[in-house]
Prior knowledge:
alpha+beta, eight-stranded mixed beta sheet, FAD/NAD(P)-binding domain, single chain, 19 strands, globular, disordered N terminus
Amino acid sequence: MSSSQLNRDFEVAVVGGGPVGLVTALLLAREGVATALLEKTPDIETDLRASTFHPPTLDLLDGIGLAGGLIAQGLISPQWQVRLHPEGDRAVFDLGVIANATRHPYRVQCEQWKLSRLALAALRAEPHAEIFFATEVMGVAQDNEGVSIDLGGAGAPPKLRARFVIGADGARSVVRQALGFGFEGETYPETTLLATTTFPFEDHLEGLTNIAYCWKAGGNFSLLRVPGRWRVSIYPREDMPIEAQITDEAIAASMQEIVAHRAGYDVMEKRPYRVHKRIAPHYHRGRVALAGDAAHLNSPSGGMGLNGGLHDAFELVAALRDVRAGAPLAGCLDRYERRRRPVALEQIIAQADANRARMREKDPAKRREILGNLQAIAADRQRQEDHLLRTSMIAGLRQAAAVS
Length: 404
């Protein structure tokens, strides 16, 4: 590709090559929009990140031909549970109850990079898209006519020009910082340890579903199954430094507390991570808008962060579609913010925060009370339907759609 080609203008530049940025770019390119995707890493990252796709997200992805490939590479999971360990008492929620509200009445457990690869392959087939890996955004400046982006990286042009810019570049978003927006909220005090193992927990814990949020004596853990392995989130002890708890031996010892296994555990991947709840004060300014983690962060409990970012993508592309049809830019992006920001704040962040607080409860009597309430919800079809519409994020999409 020649230097002159690299320096040409684009209609939209999408900053960030994670699943939210890739899906956003694909949606735009499919509509004939000259789109640049800018990603600072040299390729799609395959480290431990999100792994849960909710029913309405699958519905949206089905509309652009990505759901089938994702489902084929994941685990269809119609149920999820909250359980006491080791007793095994549990509340089980069945997504079949909301089959009248979705074409996919189940979660799919699948690593997010598999969606990224599917979206990237589709994007590469689009003539209106240009993809720039190993390209870092150094600065963003806008005027009345468009946005100038300063770039760094091998093979990248020094500057790129676009009519609009979408920042889907994650929690440390350069685009959000360029807008001068803060990131209001907090970082939770604890560090979570995430590890994977091929150990078959399903053969040892009665009635275990692919998604299980579990209380144990003095703490809690979660088990999320993906093809070929279990992802184990361990909430570490408070009387030991994290460095001492992230070794292979310490992780394996924590898994022994879940199921004693004489042959030991193979720890395949591991990483510590901090959990945040934050939101930008606005989702756009002028010709620049934010989506996904660049706009909002939440506890992973409930698996709503990535899904919410993908929902942002579809709403934001719809807003820009109206702009291209002649509607006022500010009005369309204001509508995007009015629809998506309250959902992030009132639904995604609030539910994830409540889920975290529930699982952090250590008092045995209060745990029993919480579990009893959840079991009562699961036993009542109408209450379970209402609960699942919220936790599967269908209620949030309906809330957004009702905003004019």
